[in-house]
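In response to the reviewer comment on reproducibility (Comment 2.3), we provide here a single inverse folding case reported in full, input and output, so that an independent group could reproduce the run without further information from us. The structure tokens appear first.
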């Protein structure tokens, strides 16, 4: 093979490798999201939040989750693969927002722990809460989730 043939073959191999590598990423975009959860207008501490991509609205990908702090604030973490790998953010698109009350879950009997929200908020098919995650701009998106 001539020198120009080897150069052409090397160029084609490099181009193929680049195109293959470019297509190896996940089939979804991720944006960093932080926010606050309010129940009846007040910050809600100790709540587990899940953002579940809403396939009915065209959003596909892994779920994101967080726990609220004492001020109701949270930062979502995307769960990839088997769930052991996390990175900041959520899939861009629409999500069903599911809540679990950690205060109630940590109580042995549930006695004396006020019910802060109904069971409908605990299931992906029953929750009335939805949230759009927009394409990443500069910095994190800040969202406010409100439970009446």
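Designed residues, in position order:
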């Amino acid at each position: 093979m001539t020198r120009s043939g080897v150069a052409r073959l090397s160029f084609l191999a490099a181009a193929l490798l680049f195109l293959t590598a470019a297509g190896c990423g996940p089939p979804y975009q991720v944006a960093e999201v932080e926010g606050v959860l309010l129940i009846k207008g007040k910050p809600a501490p100790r709540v587990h939040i899940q953002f579940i991509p809403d396939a009915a609205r065209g959003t596909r990908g892994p779920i994101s989750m967080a726990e609220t702090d004492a001020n109701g604030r949270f930062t979502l973490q995307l769960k990839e693969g088997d769930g052991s790998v996390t990175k900041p953010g959520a899939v861009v698109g629409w999500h069903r927002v599911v809540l679990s009350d950690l205060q109630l879950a940590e109580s042995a009997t549930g006695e004396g722990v006020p019910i802060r929200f109904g069971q409908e908020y605990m299931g992906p098919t029953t929750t009335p809460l939805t949230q759009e995650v927009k394409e990443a701009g500069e910095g994190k998106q800040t969202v406010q989730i409100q439970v009446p």
